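> run fold Potassium transporter
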Amino acid sequence: MTNPLLLFFARPSTRQHGVRRPRERVRVPTEVPSTDAIFLVLRRMRTPLVVLVAIFSISVFGLALIPGQDGTHVSPFDAFYFISYTATTIGFGEIVPFTAPQRLWVTLSIYGTVVGWAYAIGTLLSLLQDAAFREAVATQTFRRRVLRIREPFFIVAGYGQSGRAVCAELDEAGRRMVVIDSDKDRVDKLSSDQLNADVPGIDADASLPGVLGLAGLGLPNCEGVIALTDDDVVNLAVVMCVDLLRPELPVLARCHSRVTEERMHDFSAAAVINPSDRFGGYLLLAMQRPTTFHLVSWLMSSTGTPLQARREDKHDGRWIVSAEGHFREEICHDLSRAGQEVEWVDPREGYPDLAGATGFIAGSDSDTLNLAMAEHARLVDPEIFVVVRQHSIERRALVRALDIDSVYTPSDLVASEVLARVVTPTFWHFVEHALGQDEEWAAVALQRIIDRCGRKAPERDLVTIDLRNAPALTRWVQSRDFSLRDLLRDPEDRNRMLAIVPLVLVRDGVAQHMPDEDTLLRPGDQVLVAGRLGALAAMTPVLLQETAVEHAATGRDVPATWVGRVVTRAAERRRIRRS
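> ok
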């Protein structure tokens, strides 16, 4: 029987005819709508410009046809010159003495051009205030900002709580992104959020292929799409667009219902995150495999988060669920699947009877009501296990003050999973591996990390042994031995180990989890390490400096200059020959 604790991480298709194979897609160019604001200006200003040109033309040729004082005529060029500086209110004066008919015609021309200018300027001002024109200008500006991105980037659809958290962490990791949200106020927050990079944003419907095209879906440096809107239909449409137009790109999506989740899997979504279902899985994990839950939740938390003491509560028994919506359905389903006795009560009908209950879940749509129910549950039974659903992160301080046993914040859960998959996908493979191991393996891994790194959540990094990322180490391991333990030595004192633990060693596409530190490294290896703040930076000399590599491998103090190294090695060879 499939372990129910693992289903919430990668729920497979529930179809009965077996594993679905991706269909071959017809290559269709990504649609990009026109963003030419100049065309809109010319179209709206066509009539005013025609009127203005007509007035100028009549004025010029009329002045050229009227005879002067000696019966001669002003040349068309002189007439054009005079009408130009007169109609534009510059006014240099008459180029030759005019007759009364010429002055009368010039007077009429002045009033006529004033009317023409007023009509043209009024139309232009009206155009500048037109919503369609401003939208066209904003769209064109957005498109240009997207095209100026030269680095790989992600398209993030939805800039709510989850979207903002994901974008902030992506920006902190040095990754570029483009944001789409239907709410203009959310997009405007991009300019006020303290992001390091310039993040293009547009308020538009992300479900439209043209909008995704504007955001760069068809560009070669687009490396993936993240759909985090609050609307399941929009997220499903984003998954469909990516799978049909750019099937080689990964797409990660959020959803609230199992039906939508299944439909997203039909379109080959790389990951579908149903936060209510995920939390139910985490809760079961905490109940039935507490050490594994302790390890996974701690490693997935923010860097520097203290490791909390594990409570030895007994979770089996009667659970009272005072919740509504999709969250109620998912949590009741998960608890029932785990063999727990589940009783649902309507949160709007007052406090439930908690006598003899093992756990209580406050999951209404109101944060205030959830906190009130949680406090009441603690007053009735101080030992009851309390779970609170938190919608808004603005009330996080209140939740911490109540010392809740388990807090379900959908935006945080979605953001943490997305970031784990996108920023360090190798780490996510480690999490999936940890979920498949027993409690003894989790206890050993947890203790190993604590002994080396302390009780604060470690920082993570992926070390790639190649000439681009670790040139000195790569040249060394091409011909000489260098173990994983040597990589973790302090460059200043090889007898002291850095506060770093290797989590995964990837070699030729095969991952070794919690690898033996005596394993010899090879070119092309990737090592996922977790370490204390600052320890990962201290490992950098071993990757880049020849002297640090040799010291870590052999213990010899090598001169820093090239000449010194040559002399030292020559002396070493002479000493070996003599001996």
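Residues 1-21 have pLDDT under 50 and may be disordered.
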